Amino acid sequence: MEAGGPRRAPSTTATTPFVDEEGTVVNGGYKSSKIRSVFCGKPPLLSSHVGSESGGFEMSNAVRRRFAPLSFAAGLLLGGTFVVAIAAEASTAATTYYGCLHKGSLSKVGVKAPTCPSGYKLLSWNSEGPQGAQGIQGNQGTTGATGQRGVQGATGPRGATGSRGPQGATGETGPGAAMFTSSGTYTVPFRVTQVRIVVIAGGGGGGGGNGVAQSGSGGGQGASETVVASVAPGTLLFVTIGPGGVGGQPTCDAASFGQPGSASQVSTNVEILAVASGGSGGLGPCDPPYPSGGAGGPSSATAQSGVTPIGASPGQAGGSAPSGSGGGTAGVAGSGGAGGAFGVGQGGSSGYAEIIPS
User: Fewest CB atoms within 10 Å of the CB: 138, 188, 256, 319?
Assistant: First the structure.
Protein backbone atom coordinates (compact mmCIF):
# COMPACT_ATOMS: atom_id res chain seq x y z
CA MET A 1 0.00 0.00 0.00
CA GLU A 2 1.36 3.49 -0.87
CA ALA A 3 2.43 5.88 1.81
CA GLY A 4 -0.13 8.58 2.42
CA GLY A 5 -3.07 6.35 1.52
CA PRO A 6 -6.00 5.75 3.79
CA ARG A 7 -5.14 3.92 6.98
CA ARG A 8 -5.75 0.25 7.18
CA ALA A 9 -8.40 -1.12 9.47
CA PRO A 10 -7.14 -3.13 12.43
CA SER A 11 -6.53 -6.75 11.59
CA THR A 12 -9.02 -9.18 12.95
CA THR A 13 -9.59 -12.89 12.74
CA ALA A 14 -12.22 -12.25 10.06
CA THR A 15 -10.43 -9.90 7.70
CA THR A 16 -12.91 -10.20 4.84
CA PRO A 17 -15.16 -7.10 4.70
CA PHE A 18 -18.87 -7.42 4.05
CA VAL A 19 -21.84 -5.25 3.04
CA ASP A 20 -24.64 -4.70 5.58
CA GLU A 21 -28.40 -4.24 4.84
CA GLU A 22 -27.98 -0.48 4.37
CA GLY A 23 -25.32 -0.90 1.70
CA THR A 24 -22.37 -0.01 4.02
CA VAL A 25 -19.00 -1.80 3.72
CA VAL A 26 -17.98 -3.14 7.13
CA ASN A 27 -14.68 -4.80 8.21
CA GLY A 28 -13.84 -5.61 11.79
CA GLY A 29 -16.12 -2.91 13.21
CA TYR A 30 -14.94 -0.24 10.69
CA LYS A 31 -17.64 1.23 8.40
CA SER A 32 -16.97 3.07 5.17
CA SER A 33 -19.25 5.41 3.16
CA LYS A 34 -22.53 4.36 1.58
CA ILE A 35 -22.11 2.31 -1.59
CA ARG A 36 -23.25 4.12 -4.77
CA SER A 37 -22.00 1.68 -7.49
CA VAL A 38 -20.59 -1.86 -7.39
CA PHE A 39 -18.49 -3.50 -10.14
CA CYS A 40 -16.98 -7.01 -10.29
CA GLY A 41 -13.47 -8.33 -11.17
CA LYS A 42 -11.16 -11.25 -10.35
CA PRO A 43 -8.15 -9.90 -8.29
CA PRO A 44 -7.58 -11.06 -4.72
CA LEU A 45 -9.11 -9.32 -1.75
CA LEU A 46 -8.79 -5.79 -0.35
CA SER A 47 -9.40 -2.10 -1.13
CA SER A 48 -7.25 0.87 -0.30
CA HIS A 49 -9.82 2.01 2.27
CA VAL A 50 -10.31 -1.23 4.20
CA GLY A 51 -7.05 -3.09 4.80
CA SER A 52 -6.12 -6.75 4.97
CA GLU A 53 -2.86 -8.59 5.33
CA SER A 54 -3.64 -11.05 2.53
CA GLY A 55 -3.26 -8.70 -0.43
CA GLY A 56 -4.78 -5.51 -1.70
CA PHE A 57 -6.26 -3.28 -4.34
CA GLU A 58 -3.77 -0.49 -4.92
CA MET A 59 -4.69 3.05 -6.10
CA SER A 60 -2.08 5.60 -7.05
CA ASN A 61 -1.79 8.96 -5.24
CA ALA A 62 -2.42 10.70 -8.56
CA VAL A 63 -5.75 8.96 -8.86
CA ARG A 64 -6.67 9.89 -5.28
CA ARG A 65 -5.76 13.53 -5.77
CA ARG A 66 -7.71 13.79 -9.03
CA PHE A 67 -10.86 12.30 -7.55
CA ALA A 68 -10.59 13.66 -4.03
CA PRO A 69 -14.39 14.20 -3.80
CA LEU A 70 -14.84 10.44 -4.11
CA SER A 71 -14.37 8.00 -1.24
CA PHE A 72 -13.34 4.54 -2.42
CA ALA A 73 -15.04 2.15 -0.13
CA ALA A 74 -13.97 -1.44 -0.40
CA GLY A 75 -12.99 -4.49 -2.38
CA LEU A 76 -14.22 -7.75 -1.16
CA LEU A 77 -14.17 -11.37 -2.17
CA LEU A 78 -17.63 -12.88 -2.44
CA GLY A 79 -17.70 -16.43 -3.87
CA GLY A 80 -14.36 -15.87 -5.65
CA THR A 81 -15.43 -12.56 -7.24
CA PHE A 82 -13.70 -9.29 -6.39
CA VAL A 83 -16.20 -6.51 -5.80
CA VAL A 84 -15.17 -2.86 -6.01
CA ALA A 85 -17.49 -0.56 -4.10
CA ILE A 86 -17.12 3.19 -4.62
CA ALA A 87 -19.08 5.85 -2.75
CA ALA A 88 -19.48 9.58 -3.48
CA GLU A 89 -19.38 11.53 -0.24
CA ALA A 90 -18.75 15.09 -1.35
CA SER A 91 -20.58 15.10 -4.68
CA THR A 92 -24.16 14.19 -5.49
CA ALA A 93 -23.85 14.64 -9.27
CA ALA A 94 -24.57 11.50 -11.27
CA THR A 95 -21.25 11.62 -13.22
CA THR A 96 -20.05 8.30 -14.63
CA TYR A 97 -16.35 7.52 -14.03
CA TYR A 98 -14.22 4.90 -15.78
CA GLY A 99 -10.92 3.10 -14.96
CA CYS A 100 -8.78 0.12 -15.89
CA LEU A 101 -8.29 -2.58 -13.21
CA HIS A 102 -5.29 -4.91 -13.26
CA LYS A 103 -3.92 -6.97 -10.41
CA GLY A 104 -5.55 -4.80 -7.79
CA SER A 105 -4.46 -1.48 -9.31
CA LEU A 106 -6.90 1.04 -10.84
CA SER A 107 -5.54 3.33 -13.56
CA LYS A 108 -6.69 5.63 -16.34
CA VAL A 109 -9.53 6.95 -14.20
CA GLY A 110 -11.65 9.67 -15.85
CA VAL A 111 -15.07 10.67 -17.07
CA LYS A 112 -14.42 9.14 -20.49
CA ALA A 113 -14.05 5.40 -21.03
CA PRO A 114 -10.30 4.66 -21.64
CA THR A 115 -8.84 1.97 -23.86
CA CYS A 116 -7.54 -0.59 -21.39
CA PRO A 117 -4.47 -2.68 -22.27
CA SER A 118 -4.81 -6.40 -22.73
CA GLY A 119 -5.43 -8.14 -19.46
CA TYR A 120 -7.00 -5.05 -17.84
CA LYS A 121 -10.67 -4.87 -16.83
CA LEU A 122 -12.67 -1.77 -17.78
CA LEU A 123 -14.72 -0.57 -14.80
CA SER A 124 -17.33 2.22 -14.50
CA TRP A 125 -19.18 3.69 -11.52
CA ASN A 126 -21.79 6.33 -10.66
CA SER A 127 -23.57 5.45 -13.91
CA GLU A 128 -27.32 5.83 -13.98
CA GLY A 129 -29.31 2.69 -14.44
CA PRO A 130 -32.35 2.36 -16.68
CA GLN A 131 -35.49 4.15 -15.60
CA GLY A 132 -37.60 2.08 -13.29
CA ALA A 133 -41.19 1.18 -13.83
CA GLN A 134 -43.81 3.77 -12.96
CA GLY A 135 -45.00 3.47 -9.40
CA ILE A 136 -48.60 2.98 -8.40
CA GLN A 137 -50.78 6.05 -8.24
CA GLY A 138 -50.92 7.69 -4.84
CA ASN A 139 -54.08 8.45 -2.89
CA GLN A 140 -56.10 11.42 -3.99
CA GLY A 141 -55.30 14.55 -2.06
CA THR A 142 -57.83 16.53 -0.11
CA THR A 143 -60.00 19.02 -1.97
CA GLY A 144 -58.51 22.47 -2.07
CA ALA A 145 -60.22 25.53 -0.69
CA THR A 146 -62.84 27.24 -2.85
CA GLY A 147 -61.31 29.95 -4.97
CA GLN A 148 -62.41 33.55 -4.98
CA ARG A 149 -65.58 34.45 -6.83
CA GLY A 150 -64.94 35.73 -10.31
CA VAL A 151 -66.01 39.11 -11.52
CA GLN A 152 -69.56 39.49 -12.71
CA GLY A 153 -70.02 39.15 -16.42
CA ALA A 154 -71.42 41.83 -18.67
CA THR A 155 -75.17 42.36 -18.82
CA GLY A 156 -76.73 40.36 -21.63
CA PRO A 157 -78.90 41.85 -24.37
CA ARG A 158 -82.46 42.77 -23.58
CA GLY A 159 -84.96 40.05 -24.36
CA ALA A 160 -88.00 40.37 -26.57
CA THR A 161 -91.12 41.99 -25.15
CA GLY A 162 -93.52 39.40 -23.78
CA SER A 163 -97.18 39.13 -24.62
CA ARG A 164 -99.60 41.49 -22.93
CA GLY A 165 -101.02 40.13 -19.71
CA PRO A 166 -104.70 40.04 -18.79
CA GLN A 167 -106.34 43.24 -17.60
CA GLY A 168 -106.24 43.64 -13.85
CA ALA A 169 -109.22 44.24 -11.61
CA THR A 170 -110.66 47.73 -11.44
CA GLY A 171 -108.92 49.71 -8.74
CA GLU A 172 -110.52 51.76 -6.02
CA THR A 173 -112.18 54.98 -6.96
CA GLY A 174 -109.71 57.83 -6.98
CA PRO A 175 -110.02 61.12 -5.14
CA GLY A 176 -112.85 63.30 -6.35
CA ALA A 177 -114.92 60.42 -7.73
CA ALA A 178 -118.46 59.89 -6.45
CA MET A 179 -121.18 57.25 -6.84
CA PHE A 180 -124.89 57.90 -6.25
CA THR A 181 -127.78 55.54 -5.50
CA SER A 182 -129.99 58.41 -4.43
CA SER A 183 -130.23 62.03 -5.49
CA GLY A 184 -127.57 64.51 -4.34
CA THR A 185 -125.01 67.13 -5.47
CA TYR A 186 -121.39 67.08 -6.57
CA THR A 187 -118.80 69.90 -6.50
CA VAL A 188 -116.12 69.76 -9.19
CA PRO A 189 -112.70 69.51 -7.45
CA PHE A 190 -109.93 72.12 -7.73
CA ARG A 191 -108.00 71.96 -11.01
CA VAL A 192 -110.53 69.52 -12.55
CA THR A 193 -111.88 70.68 -15.93
CA GLN A 194 -113.43 67.46 -17.24
CA VAL A 195 -115.57 64.72 -15.73
CA ARG A 196 -116.88 61.35 -16.91
CA ILE A 197 -120.57 60.82 -16.08
CA VAL A 198 -122.59 57.58 -16.10
CA VAL A 199 -126.38 57.59 -15.46
CA ILE A 200 -128.82 54.64 -15.28
CA ALA A 201 -132.59 55.14 -15.04
CA GLY A 202 -134.98 53.22 -12.77
CA GLY A 203 -136.63 49.98 -13.95
CA GLY A 204 -140.39 49.53 -14.47
CA GLY A 205 -142.51 47.61 -11.94
CA GLY A 206 -143.94 44.19 -12.77
CA GLY A 207 -147.66 43.70 -13.46
CA GLY A 208 -149.89 42.15 -10.81
CA GLY A 209 -151.43 38.66 -11.17
CA ASN A 210 -154.29 36.68 -9.71
CA GLY A 211 -153.45 33.09 -10.79
CA VAL A 212 -151.18 30.97 -12.95
CA ALA A 213 -153.36 31.57 -16.00
CA GLN A 214 -153.60 35.27 -15.18
CA SER A 215 -150.02 36.34 -14.29
CA GLY A 216 -148.60 39.81 -14.79
CA SER A 217 -145.62 40.51 -17.08
CA GLY A 218 -142.21 41.91 -16.06
CA GLY A 219 -141.26 45.57 -16.04
CA GLY A 220 -138.70 46.96 -18.49
CA GLN A 221 -135.09 47.85 -17.61
CA GLY A 222 -134.06 51.49 -17.38
CA ALA A 223 -131.79 52.97 -20.10
CA SER A 224 -128.17 54.17 -19.51
CA GLU A 225 -125.89 56.88 -20.90
CA THR A 226 -122.18 57.75 -20.56
CA VAL A 227 -120.69 61.15 -21.44
CA VAL A 228 -117.55 63.26 -20.92
CA ALA A 229 -118.40 66.86 -19.98
CA SER A 230 -116.21 69.95 -19.74
CA VAL A 231 -116.69 71.71 -16.42
CA ALA A 232 -115.10 74.47 -14.37
CA PRO A 233 -113.52 73.80 -10.98
CA GLY A 234 -115.96 74.51 -8.16
CA THR A 235 -119.05 73.98 -10.35
CA LEU A 236 -122.00 72.47 -8.46
CA LEU A 237 -123.64 69.50 -10.26
CA PHE A 238 -127.13 68.23 -9.42
CA VAL A 239 -127.63 64.48 -9.47
CA THR A 240 -131.13 62.99 -9.83
CA ILE A 241 -131.58 59.24 -9.36
CA GLY A 242 -134.83 57.86 -10.81
CA PRO A 243 -136.63 55.39 -8.54
CA GLY A 244 -137.96 52.06 -9.83
CA GLY A 245 -141.66 51.71 -10.74
CA VAL A 246 -144.12 50.23 -8.27
CA GLY A 247 -145.51 46.75 -9.00
CA GLY A 248 -149.18 46.28 -10.19
CA GLN A 249 -152.01 44.99 -8.06
CA PRO A 250 -153.68 41.56 -8.54
CA THR A 251 -156.80 42.97 -10.23
CA CYS A 252 -158.22 43.20 -13.72
CA ASP A 253 -158.19 46.96 -13.94
CA ALA A 254 -155.55 49.64 -14.43
CA ALA A 255 -154.23 49.10 -10.93
CA SER A 256 -152.76 45.80 -12.08
CA PHE A 257 -150.28 47.58 -14.35
CA GLY A 258 -146.76 48.10 -13.11
CA GLN A 259 -145.57 51.72 -12.88
CA PRO A 260 -142.71 52.97 -15.09
CA GLY A 261 -139.26 53.72 -13.70
CA SER A 262 -138.11 57.34 -13.52
CA ALA A 263 -135.26 58.99 -15.44
CA SER A 264 -131.83 59.66 -13.92
CA GLN A 265 -129.76 62.74 -14.86
CA VAL A 266 -126.82 65.00 -13.95
CA SER A 267 -127.09 68.71 -14.63
CA THR A 268 -125.81 72.13 -13.75
CA ASN A 269 -128.17 74.92 -12.78
CA VAL A 270 -128.24 75.78 -16.48
CA GLU A 271 -128.16 72.57 -18.58
CA ILE A 272 -128.48 68.80 -18.50
CA LEU A 273 -125.13 67.02 -18.97
CA ALA A 274 -126.42 63.40 -19.05
CA VAL A 275 -129.83 61.73 -18.88
CA ALA A 276 -131.37 58.22 -19.15
CA SER A 277 -135.06 57.21 -19.43
CA GLY A 278 -136.81 54.72 -17.11
CA GLY A 279 -138.25 51.35 -18.14
CA SER A 280 -141.97 50.77 -18.70
CA GLY A 281 -144.14 48.82 -16.24
CA GLY A 282 -145.44 45.32 -16.84
CA LEU A 283 -149.11 44.68 -17.75
CA GLY A 284 -151.85 43.12 -15.59
CA PRO A 285 -153.28 39.59 -16.03
CA CYS A 286 -156.61 40.42 -17.67
CA ASP A 287 -155.78 42.37 -20.80
CA PRO A 288 -154.75 40.15 -22.53
CA PRO A 289 -154.49 36.91 -20.48
CA TYR A 290 -150.74 36.53 -21.23
CA PRO A 291 -149.50 40.07 -21.67
CA SER A 292 -146.09 41.08 -22.99
CA GLY A 293 -143.45 42.59 -20.69
CA GLY A 294 -142.90 46.30 -20.26
CA ALA A 295 -140.54 48.00 -22.73
CA GLY A 296 -137.06 48.99 -21.69
CA GLY A 297 -136.22 52.66 -21.37
CA PRO A 298 -135.31 54.28 -24.73
CA SER A 299 -131.74 55.45 -25.31
CA SER A 300 -131.00 59.13 -25.72
CA ALA A 301 -127.74 60.98 -26.44
CA THR A 302 -127.34 64.37 -24.82
CA ALA A 303 -126.58 67.08 -27.34
CA GLN A 304 -125.09 69.95 -25.36
CA SER A 305 -122.08 72.18 -25.94
CA GLY A 306 -119.06 70.82 -24.11
CA VAL A 307 -120.59 67.33 -23.75
CA THR A 308 -119.24 64.33 -25.68
CA PRO A 309 -121.50 61.23 -25.70
CA ILE A 310 -119.50 58.00 -25.15
CA GLY A 311 -122.36 55.52 -25.19
CA ALA A 312 -126.14 55.22 -24.76
CA SER A 313 -127.98 51.92 -24.30
CA PRO A 314 -131.75 51.21 -24.17
CA GLY A 315 -133.13 49.05 -21.35
CA GLN A 316 -134.05 45.40 -21.84
CA ALA A 317 -137.79 44.61 -22.07
CA GLY A 318 -139.53 42.68 -19.30
CA GLY A 319 -140.55 39.05 -19.75
CA SER A 320 -144.02 38.04 -20.92
CA ALA A 321 -146.49 36.21 -18.66
CA PRO A 322 -146.68 33.64 -17.22
CA SER A 323 -142.92 33.70 -16.33
CA GLY A 324 -142.96 37.50 -16.21
CA SER A 325 -139.27 38.14 -15.34
CA GLY A 326 -138.12 41.74 -15.13
CA GLY A 327 -135.83 43.26 -17.75
CA GLY A 328 -132.07 43.20 -16.93
CA THR A 329 -130.34 41.38 -14.08
CA ALA A 330 -132.51 41.11 -10.99
CA GLY A 331 -131.23 43.22 -8.11
CA VAL A 332 -128.91 45.37 -10.27
CA ALA A 333 -129.56 49.11 -10.57
CA GLY A 334 -132.19 49.92 -13.22
CA SER A 335 -133.52 46.36 -13.60
CA GLY A 336 -137.29 45.86 -14.13
CA GLY A 337 -139.51 44.16 -11.56
CA ALA A 338 -140.93 40.68 -12.15
CA GLY A 339 -144.64 40.24 -12.82
CA GLY A 340 -146.84 38.83 -10.05
CA ALA A 341 -148.32 35.34 -10.29
CA PHE A 342 -150.67 35.32 -7.31
CA GLY A 343 -150.42 38.89 -6.14
CA VAL A 344 -148.71 42.25 -6.45
CA GLY A 345 -146.01 42.62 -9.10
CA GLN A 346 -142.40 43.23 -8.02
CA GLY A 347 -141.18 46.83 -8.06
CA GLY A 348 -138.35 47.94 -10.38
CA SER A 349 -134.84 48.80 -9.09
CA SER A 350 -133.76 52.40 -8.63
CA GLY A 351 -131.28 54.04 -10.97
CA TYR A 352 -127.61 54.93 -10.44
CA ALA A 353 -125.04 57.62 -11.30
CA GLU A 354 -121.24 58.12 -11.01
CA ILE A 355 -119.00 61.09 -11.64
CA ILE A 356 -115.22 60.60 -12.10
CA PRO A 357 -112.68 63.39 -12.81
CA SER A 358 -110.78 62.64 -16.02
Answer: 138
